[in-house]
Fold each of these.
Amino acid sequence: MPHRLPVGPMKTRCSWPGEDPLYVAYHDEEWGVPEHDDRTLFEKLILDGFQAGLSWITILRKRDSFRGAFDSFEPARIARYDRRKVESLMKDAGIVRNRAKIEGTVRNARAYLDLLESGQTFNDFIWQFTDGRTIKNAYGRRQDVPAESPESRAMSKALKARGFGFCGPTICYAFMQAVGIVNDHVVDCFRYEEV
C-alpha cells in the first residue's frame, strides 16, 4: 500500500513530494495544472531537460537561480548567448553546470524562435499531441505510471525535427505531466479532480 500524505479531513496527496515544503507546494499548486503560456512552457521544457539524471527536487531548489542565470527564460535573449556567456554559466554554482545542457538550452531557444517565425505558437505546437486536451489517466499507485507514452514519443520526435534537444520521450512525458497535458495525480490524490 503506497504511503499518502494527509492534507486535511478525508484528503490525501500523491506520495512523491514527501514532506519537503517546497516539493509539497509544487505538487499542490503547479504540477499537472494545464499551462498555455509560451514562455512558461519553454522554461518547463528546459528545466525538465536539466533534470535528466537528477531528481526534480534538485532542479526545483535551483529554479530561482536558473531563472536569474537564464534571463527569466526569455528565448530571444538566450538565443544570443555566446561562448563567453556559456563559460559564465559553467561557473554559476546556483544552476546545474552541464555544458551540453547549457549549450542545448541556447539551441532550444533558437529552435523556439524558428518555430514562432513559422507562424505557430509554442503552446499550439506542444498541445497538438493530445488535440489540445488533457489526458486524464487513472492510476492508483505511482509505480503504475509509465515513463513515456505514444504522445511523448511523438512530441519528442517532432521537437527533435524542429531542432530541439534534451527532449527524449521520458523528458517529454515528465514535461507533459508538469504542464497538465497529462493528469497523472493518483486517483485518491485531492489534486486529481482539481486539475
Amino acid sequence: MSNLYRALRRGTFFKAILGREPFHWVRPLAGVEEFGTRYGRWGLNVGALGEHSTVLSFGLGEDLSFEAALMAHFRCRVVGFDPTPRSVAYVAQQSLGPRFRAHAFAISDHDGHLKFRLPPSDAADQVSASAVAGYAQDMTSEIEVPCLTLESARQLAGVERIDVLKLDIEGAEYAVLKQSLARGWLDDVQQLLVEFHHFLPGVGAEQTREAIAALQRAGFVIAWIGRTNHEYAFIRTRISDPAAPAA
C-alpha cells in the first residue's frame, strides 16, 4: 500500500499533523507481499515462511482469508483465537483442514475472564466486540468471555516458536504488547502483525505511538502498513535492547 494513498485517505496526514493519527513513511522491503481480502488483508515477509512455520492469529472475526491464504501458499500451521459468538459460529462453518485449529479465548494481560462490550447497533462491524472501547451501551451489550495471556495461549496451542503473531484485538493490544515485551514473550516472534485501535472511543493515538516506539526498541522495524493506516507489520531485525532509543 503506497505511502501517498495512506496520507490522503480520509485526511490521515492532516490528522497526523494534529496529533490524532500516527503516520510512518514506510520504505518498501523486498519479499513483503499482501494476503487476504480487502477487509482482512495483511502484509508480511514471505521469505521467512514455510511448511514448518507457525502462525498465531488473535482476532478472527468473520474473515479467515488471510489465514487460509497462508496455509494454501506455505502449508504452515495456523492457530486462531476468538471468543466472540459470531466469530465462533463463523469459524465452526469453515473447513480449512488439519493445519488449522481455533480456540474460543480472548488474549489479555491475565488468565481468567473479561467483559466484552458489543459494538453499537448502528456500527458497520457487528462482530468486533471490545474489552477496552468505551461504547455507550447498557449492560445487555456486555458478554463475559474466557481469556489467556500470550504465554498461556502459546502453551494451549503447543507452540514453541511463533513465526507470525497477529493481534487484531480491538484495543487490548496495548496492554498485551506491554506485558509481552516486559516478560520477553515476543523474543522469538519473527513477524508481528498488529491493528492499532486508537480510533475507538476511550483510546488515543498516543498509546499507538508509545507501543510502536517500544516495539522498535525491542528490535522490530515497520515493514508494511495497510490502507487504513491502522494495520502494521513488524519484522524482527535484532535482539531486544530496552535501553536503545526508538528508531
